[in-house]
Amino acid sequence: MKNLIQLGLAAVLSATFITAKAQSKETENSTVWEISGNGLTKPSYIAGTFHIMCSQDFEIKPKVMKALEKSDQFVMEINYTDPAEMAAMQTMYQTDKKLSDQLTPEESAELDNVLADYGTDLKKMDHSSSQGLYALISLKALPCPQTDIKLYEIELLQNALKNKKKVFGLEKVNDQMTSINKAYDLKAVIGQLKMGKEYEILLKKMVAAFKKEDVQSVYSLFKDDKIMNAEQEKLMLTDRNKNWAEKMPEMKKKESAFFAIGSAHLMGENGIILLLRSKGYTVKPILSL
């Protein structure tokens, strides 16, 4: 389980901010939603997660855990219990192609200076992938040491395994990495690294809003195009949401499912909630359970 937690930390670090921007016309607020109707014999649930935060801020609402208890299956973005997925995850942050070989001497020097703000340098990070660099942003933005970090999905997974739930994933590690690579090339990631202080402020506001289940405020914090432009939003949110929405009906057809996905994927015109509603399902926020 320790290795699983370490890999889970690696997986969410680069995704924490990359998948953050979303807009919605919804007026509903909740961290967990019920899916019913359209032939379902039992309701299923969607939990909007906050991938990573400090333990002092960490909380999973009782209604979220109750929804998980009522479900037969636990479905994450990626199935962390799949050995093949874990093997893929172990290699996704390293590459044989050096960062310095992809940059001019001037760009390399600039990146080295930027990395100093993150407590490292280009020599140490030269074999990292773009995602490896992006992971530094989340670590720096968190106001606590790594030993004090809590991972929302991992906490849910541990509970699901304890209660012998079936575990599945909505996509493969390689699918996720393909989306990230298309959305954020090396120079785009370096540009994001330069915004380190802005991410610290953003994360603090996000955590406060999430703790109050004020998801609309969470989303409003991510409308700045410096974080995610329209094309990046399409690659990181819209396209993946549509793929997931096609898989979800079959996964909850015979048994109830609890879907744990990043909160940004829930909302917006191409968010999971509206996509499922368009397929005939009733999706409503749960205030208590």
Automatic annotation (TrEMBL):
It is found in: Membrane. Its main location: membrane. GO terms for cellular component: membrane. Coiled coil: none annotated. GO terms for biological process: negative regulation of Wnt signaling pathway; proteolysis. It is a single-pass type I membrane protein. GO terms for molecular function: metal ion binding; metalloendopeptidase activity. The keyword NAD does not apply. Its cofactor is Co(2+); Mn(2+). Residues 1-22 form the signal peptide. It comes from the Bacteria. Keywords: Glycoprotein, Hydrolase, Membrane, Metal-binding, Metalloprotease, Protease, Signal, Transmembrane, Transmembrane helix. Pfam families: TraB_PrgY_gumN (PF01963). InterPro entries: TIKI1/2-like, TraB/PrgY/GumN_fam. The keyword Signal applies. This is TraB family.
